[in-house]
Amino acid sequence: MVEESKVHTPLIAVERIPYVGTNMLKDPISVVDPEAFEIMKNEKSRQKRGLELIASENFTTKAVHDALGSAMSNKYSEGYPGA
């Protein structure tokens, strides 16, 4: 008989900041999600302060950042090209 194993993951209380903006589709991330905005600011600061010698951390150009934040990031494809 196979014994069933159960994994218990404790829940962590999360305090959400209520959205106080006027238009979630147009407001900047600093208004929509101040906590995420702070995390991004801290990460940008960390990257400016030093050089991380970790292969998985790469610096990109402004053009790449612009492309990632453009309307093109709303697109995705599945499957094979031309199929």
Architecture blueprint of SSEs:
Layout (H helix, E strand, L loop, with lengths): L28 H4 L1 H16 L12 H7 L15
GO biological process, one term: glycine biosynthetic process from serine
Keywords: Pyridoxal phosphate
Cofactor: pyridoxal 5'-phosphate
Describe the structure.
Keywords: Pyridoxal phosphate. Residues 30-83 form the Serine hydroxymethyltransferase-like domain. One of its GO terms (cellular component) is nucleus. The protein is mostly helical and 83 residues long. It has a domain at 29-74. It is built from three helices and no strands. The chain has helices spanning 29-32, 34-49, 62-68. The longest helix is centred in the middle third of the chain and has 16 residues, at 34-49. It is extended, with a radius of gyration of 20 Å. It starts with 28 loop residues before the first helix and ends in a 15-residue tail after the last helix.
Q: In a few lines, what is going on in this structure?
A:
This is Glycine hydroxymethyltransferase. The protein is mainly α and about 80 residues long. The chain has helices spanning about 30, 35-50, 60-70.
